[in-house]
Write a structure and sequence with these properties.
The protein has four helices and seven strands, in the order H-H-E-E-H-E-E-H-E-E-E. With 150 residues, it is of the alpha+beta class. It has one domain: Hotdog Thioesterase (Thiol Ester Dehydrase, Chain A). Strands 1, 2, 3, 4, 5, 6 and 7 form a seven-stranded antiparallel beta sheet that branches. The chain is globular, with a radius of gyration of 15 Å.
Length: 150
């Protein structure tokens, strides 16, 4: 049986080629933990041999989408980021892991709002860590879930 993370990773990489380019790995969409890993390499490094800031942003940003894509009440709803503020704490000199918590109770609120109003807005506070577990960036993301019109 295929893990939900593997199926979701395949879908994300096919639909959003940036994440294929980054070699994004979705490591968790279970038990309230939403997490992805991105290796430091030719496609993700910058001119000073650290992890590129834009790709750290992309790793943090996808987490809101992973919540919705893995837990939405209906396929017609899609996530969009409205704003993401990020503070880079220190250079990332290794692979990174972006993670955020979103409890099952929050998922229930989201799905109830979608069933009632057809829309839902939420805020997340992703953290990005290097391979040693040190925080390299922190973000605040604002997301909207809307109906995808045919």
């Amino acid at each position: 049986m295929e893990r939900i993370e593997t199926a979701l990773e395949s879908w994300v990489r096919a639909q959003l080629p940036l994440y294929e380019f980054m070699d994004l790995e979705i490591t968790s969409v279970s038990d309230g933990l939403y997490q992805c890993r991105v290796p430091l390499g030719r496609n993700t490094g910058n001119h000073v041999n650290t992890f590129h800031a834009a790709l750290q942003f992309a790793a943090a940003e996808i987490l809101g989408g992973l919540i919705v894509l893995s837990r939405r009440s209906d396929e017609k709803y899609v996530p969009v980021v409205k704003r993401l503020d990020i503070e880079y704490r220190r250079p990332a000199l290794s692979d990174i892991t972006a993670e955020v918590r979103f409890a099952d109770a929050q998922v229930e609120v989201m799905n109830a709002a979608l069933a009632t109003d057809g829309r839902y807005d939420f805020e997340l506070r992703p953290v990005i860590r290097d391979a040693a577990g040190e925080v390299v960036a922190e973000a605040t993301g604002y997301y909207a879930v809307r109906t995808m019109e045919p």
